[in-house]
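In pairs, describe these two lines:
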Amino acid sequence: MNDWQALESSILSCRLCPRLVAWREEVARVKRRAYREEDYWGKPVPGFGDPAARVLIVGLAPGAHGANRTGRMFTGDSSGDFLYAALHRAGFASQPTSRGRDDGLTVTDAYISAACRCAPPDNKPAPDEIAACRPFLAAEIALLRDIQVVVALGRIAFDAFLRSYAPITGAATPVFTHNAVISLGPDLPLLVTSYHPSRQNTQTGRLTTEMFDDVWSGVKGLLQ
């Protein structure tokens, strides 16, 4: 078993947060009417993407009927539709849609993770639940040896990355604003911030297609 397989096994077997375990399994059992014929994943969701990636993307958590159903980050819900369409336009994803683990989607030069690996009620993981997941993100960061840019999708992802990234522990926390480029120090990845592509943001115009495309265009320009 290699390091990536060992990490995935550790994520899949995690039951540290009783509230999240109960919720993810209840959602998988009850299901949404539109997906009642499907077998839900109902487990923690590992990261997804290119292990040689230069870009690390950190989201919030699996959607109850998105990744908690499909078993792949940002797959099967509106947030994923918005994200993968943008990644496809920017050249990071092989197709603009993401429906399930076997849909043929591949991601090049990017790896997609999250602050929390289990679907939380109301999309709101508690601070102790995020803290319990932090070692998984830290382990991914350690394995992704070519990272040049980290994209934090939303404030929770922003905070989770900063707390997971050991080299800057103790440094002053930068302010979260949309489409900022933050230097973490010499020889460290650049941190790019974006509003999360949730329906709450995309349907209200807080995050538009053009705004999101600007983020990914900027990310490409930062890669060396």
